[in-house]
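In this supplementary section we document a worked example of the pipeline. Step one takes a protein sequence of length 312 as its only input; no multiple sequence alignment statistics are reported here. Step two produces a three-dimensional model, which step three serialises into structure tokens for compact storage. The input and output of this example are shown verbatim.
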Amino acid sequence: MQFTRKDILDTASLSAEEIIMILDTAEGMKGISQRAVKKVPTLRGQTVVLFFYEPSTRTRTSFDIAAKRLSADSISISASASSLVKGESLIDTARNLEAMNADIIVMRHSSSGAPHLLASRLKASVINAGDGTHAHPSQALLDMMTVRQKKGSFEGLRIAIIGDISHSRVARSNIAGFGKMGAHVTVAGPPTMIPKGIESLGCRVSHHMDGAIEDADVIMMLRIQKERQKGFLFPTEREYASVYGLNRKRLKKAKKDALILHPGPINRGVEISPDVADSPRSLILDQVNNGVAVRMALLYLVTGGGQNADTD
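The serialised model returned by step three reads:
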């Protein structure tokens, strides 16, 4: 199978075959990061622009590392350091970047759909690094890679996603991605943080965390995204932690081999206790490690998927 997509905008539009191809490619890319010299000439001469309208640590850094390990030239631009602060439109900024012969634009934006707008106007490839509350495909793919490494396959797995579902692009991308691969997804959280109609994406809704995690093979905890909330959606962090936080006592109600994921950043003591976050069942650092490999795979695939590429 040849990967023919110019852009990576969400997991919902990816086929199961494309997801498998991305994950298989990422497994191959992971070996590059384990070498003494962590670099191959695969994307030599390609220019990757990291255009992040919102703050980011893991995603931005891992895309930067991914580009450099493939020998691409990586340039980082933030909204505060671009002409957007002078009133330049998003499209004009992107067109100027393309006029400088950028090959790939990795974009994070606060507005849902912004990467889709760019992708429809530009010849350069666009990779969505998170848009509003809509999608975060590379995060979902690295989550899937992490689960596949431990569970072998996705068919029949029960995935519980707990927390601020309303404001989580990670939740939406994981619902689409895992569901497409045959897993069953349940979301749980305070009623004020569960959007109406979320079931239409292919998940089950529970307002009781204990029931959601009882038969789960994977528990994904989400942080409360205060920066996106316009009002008070819960009384106090202490009360939230007591009802929806994952601690050692509550974890006993889950399957003994249930895996724990978190997209980060972690608010320790709120959605997850420190001892659980650092426990052997936690794959949080595995997710970070796999993030570089997945993003290497995405950069590689949108530039041709192996045609005339040297990965040795």
